[in-house]
Amino acid sequence: MDVTQIEFIAHQDAARYLEITVDVARVLESWRDSIFSFEWLLNDGTIKPERDLPPREKPKRALVEEKLSKNQPLEKPILGIGINDNVEIGVGRAEFLTLAAHGAKTIPVYIPKSNESDFKEFLAEVN
């Protein structure tokens, strides 16, 4: 999926965050340690199909799928570092994971300015 063709909506508090582009595979590997990952990930770390998501997550995924099909803008996800030193997806979890399910290799996100050094290993390679 060519994420450069997707329009992202800036978060209302964007000035409080840094915008970076992350490597999706690295983020997902870290996010597997999140206590919330079971809702979206299978045991092997792949993203569940929409039909297998918990009832409260299905409509979120469906909404992102609808926006993608209509070329509507998506909210830019906000990532952070959790208490177990793993990536956590705060705002925009459905957006991030749906794009990942569609094969996106990189995704632009926001991170707290205080987490800048923690995200060096998750930065996407720039061509």
Can you tell me about this structure?
The chain has helices at residues 24-31, 58-69, 93-101; strands at residues 8-9, 17-23, 74-75, 79-81, 87-89, 106-112. It is α+β, with helices and mostly antiparallel strands and 127 residues long. The protein has a single domain (3-122), classed as Conserved hypothetical protein from pyrococcus furiosus pfu- 392566-001, ParB domain, CATH 3.90.1530. The longest helix is centred in the middle third of the chain and has 12 residues, at 58-69. The protein starts with 7 loop residues before the first strand and ends in a 15-residue tail after the last strand.
Q: Count up the domains.
A: 1
Total E-strand runs: 6
CATH topology: Conserved hypothetical protein from pyrococcus furiosus pfu- 392566-001, ParB domain
User: Helices and strands, in N-to-C order?
Assistant: EEHHEEEHE
Catalogue the unreliable spans.
Answer: none
Helix content: 10-25%
Biggest sheet: strand arrangement: 1-3
| N→C terminal distance | 16 Å
Q: Provide the CATH architecture.
A: Alpha-Beta Complex
* Average of pLDDT: 92
Radius of gyration: 14 Å
The CATH class designation is: Alpha Beta
Q: What structural class do you assign from the helix and strand content?
A: alpha+beta
For the largest beta-sheet, the strand count, sense and barrel status come to:
2 strands, parallel
Helices, strands, pairings?
Elements (H helix, E strand, L loop, with lengths): L7 E2 L7 E7 H8 L26 H12 L4 E2 L3 E3 L5 E3 L3 H9 L4 E7 L15
Parallel strand pairs: 1-3
Antiparallel strand pairs: 2-6, 4-5
Helix pairs in contact: 2-3
